[in-house]
Amino acid sequence: METQDLQDEANLEVIREMMKAGLMYGHKKSKTNPKFKPYIYTTRNEIEIIDLAQTLSALERAIEFIKSQIKEGKLILLVASQPAAKEAVENLAKKFNFSYINEKWIGGLLTNFKVISQRLEYFKKVQLDFERGEFDKYTKKERVMINRNIYRMKKMFTGLENLTKLPDVIFIVDLSLKGHTTAVREARRIKIPIVAVLDSDDDPDSVNFPIPANDHAKISIDWIMNKISEKLTT
Question: Domains along the chain?
């Protein structure tokens, strides 16, 4: 069998996996962003069906870009605050030492990084002081207030402990979420490249490496993150 035939067969097998994970399901046709139309294969029962051959090619391009950034020692920030993506994004980030946000996007993280990074350093200091028992000397009431403050900062800054400078790349799952649209706007303003898993209601032109796929179902997001993890280790 020719090399091209083998490659085609391998791609077909991957596309079958993608179908099983539901990557082809977009949103209702009425919600389609006009700029996403080139990625649509067909419409079924008013639901857009994404062209998985294009998804696979886009995913491969995005992975090659991420690989090149890792090789150059660049900082990568993953962003996915929706419940369906939290676990997969955190696992990928921890495996490759990426920074990540899987709670609320911090407004100004990119465009006002100097101020946000000072708050992040304060959080790390407070955490260290807590672990050393530095707050044991305070009254019970004071410790309750301190614990509340630490908890609030943990929800905000967990995953960003290694973000010592502006990220070189930002990877977002689903552009349509409120905080994620802010992240895109900030990244574009200061020209940070964006990789994104996006659906039929999103604008692929707003990012550098769009990956057209179902961005709202856990099984789809898990498949994409697992595939990225697998390819980054080969």
Answer: 3-110+166-232 (3.40.50.10490), 113-157 (1.10.287)
DSSP structure class, residue 42:
E
Q: What is the mean pLDDT of each run of 10 residues along the chain (234 residues)?
A: 59 94 97 97 96 97 97 97 94 96 95 95 85 76 81 91 95 95 97 98 97 97 97 91
DSSP state of 31: G
Paired tokens of 130:
């807590």
Pair of tokens at residue 191: 């020209």
Distance CA 194, CA 209 (A): 6
Q: Please, are residues 92 and 228 in contact by the beta-carbon 8 Å criterion?
A: yes
Give the strand pairing for 99-101 and 47-50.
unpaired
Q: In this structure, how many other beta carbons lie within 10 angstroms of the beta carbon of residue 177?
A: 19
pTM passes above 0.85: yes
Strand 194-198 and strand 169-173: the pairing is: parallel
Write the single-letter amino acid at 120.
L
> Token pair for residue 193?
């490249």
Beta carbons of 180 and 105 less than 8 angstroms apart: yes
**Contact of 198 with 212, CB cutoff 8 Å:** yes
